[in-house]
Design goal:
single chain, globular, 69% helix, mainly alpha
Length: 90
């Protein structure tokens, strides 16, 4: 179990939760930057956001709802990564 990796995933989950919070306006630019970051650093997210994916849409054509949906999918992937990391034996 790598504590630094766990903390990093927890920070990423918190960042996504903050972006999706209904308590403040949706920051689309920050959401897009978050999606790009995870697409570049996580293989599973990269597969989700490949142009070969049936749900692939360019940011310029995507609605706010589809950007939010993508963030939710990334959140699910990160939650699975967190569980897997916690279950690793040292």
């Amino acid at each position: 179990m790598d504590i630094r990796k766990i903390l990093s995933i927890l920070n990423d989950l918190k960042e996504i939760d903050n972006l999706l919070s209904i308590q403040k306006p949706f920051d689309r630019a920050k959401a897009e930057a978050t999606i790009v970051k995870h697409t570049q650093t996580n293989k599973k997210v990269a597969i989700l956001n490949t142009p070969l994916s049936p749900n692939y849409v360019l940011f310029s054509e995507a609605s706010d709802e589809s950007v939010k949906s993508n963030l939710l999918e990334i959140k699910k992937i990160l939650e699975i990564d967190l569980i897997n990391e916690k279950n690793k034996r040292t």
